[in-house]
Design a protein that fits this description.
Elements lengths: L6 H11 L7 H24 L10 H23 L3 H5 L4 H19 L1 H4 L1 E3 L6 H11 L6 E3 L3 H5 L12 H7 L9 H26 L9 H26 L1
Antiparallel strand pairs: 1-2
Helix pairs in contact: 1-3, 2-3, 2-9, 5-11, 10-11
């Protein structure tokens, strides 16, 4: 079993890593997962020897030793609190990681077929007079078409638990131990940015869907917010591509 450090070490961990605007819960959870993997790799004996912060002569080795010490404190905090689902689940399997590739392919398809996926044409029943009115005010290409912004949420995993991107940020957190240690900080930043952009894409799509119903709204409001949605989806795809490497 892994020995429990002194309580002052436990509180020191939370003083350094407590969630703030600079260190989100995503990053904290990722660190817990990564250090748990470290504990399994080192084994109980070697891992126990890392509980005390060793003194070194060079600045470089001091930095490395401090990082190792903080990592071991993170594992202890996780063991004491026992509140991290990602920690309990462990690193994802190859089959689980395949969700990232499938999800990215779906987002790319959405961007490549944006107009087809965000509007429905030819299914709106209109009289000849209504159809002529639409052509005069919106152009011939808009006759019988209706925007469907909420379809964007379906491609980003916000509609179905069966979608490969459903809560995929949790999968990304669990994958943190698989990342090169030198790229660890950059990886966490990309995960956070992906989550922000994906959430914003879903929110903008919802806002667009109500563009005509709100006061001072109209089809042009739907189009405006749908265009903003597309920009966020492009950023979402970019960060997802970076995570895939």
């Amino acid at each position: 079993s892994v020995p429990i450090p002194r309580y002052n070490s436990y509180f020191r961990f939370f003083e350094i890593f407590r969630p703030t605007s600079g260190r989100s819960m995503v990053r904290l959870q990722s660190q817990l997962v990564s250090t748990a993997a470290l504990a399994l790799l080192l084994g109980p004996t070697s891992f126990a020897n890392a509980w005390s912060l060793p003194s070194t002569s060079s600045q470089s080795s001091t930095s490395t030793s401090r990082r190792t010490w903080l990592q071991t404190q993170a594992v202890t905090a996780a063991l004491l609190t026992n509140r991290s689902p990602a920690l309990a689940a462990g690193p994802p399997s190859p089959a689980e990681l395949e969700r990232l590739r499938k999800g990215h392919a779906r987002v790319q398809y959405l961007l490549d077929h944006w107009d087809d996926e965000t509007q429905v044409c030819g299914k709106i029943i209109m009289s000849d007079a209504e159809r002529r009115q639409v052509v005069r005010t919106e152009g011939s290409g808009s006759a019988g078409c209706e925007k469907t912004p909420l379809n964007v949420q379906s491609f980003l995993g916000y509609k179905s638990t069966e979608d490969p991107l459903y809560r995929v940020d949790k999968l990304m957190v669990r994958a943190a131990p698989l990342v090169d240690p030198d790229d660890f900080e950059n990886y966490l930043e990309v995960v956070e940015k992906y989550k922000d952009k994906a959430d914003n894409s879903a929110m903008m799509a919802y806002t667009s869907s109500w563009g005509e119903a709100n006061p001072n709204g109209g089809k042009e409001v739907i189009d405006e917010y749908l265009e903003r949605t597309k920009l966020d989806v492009k950023d979402t795809e970019m960060y997802l591509r970076k995570i895939l490497g």
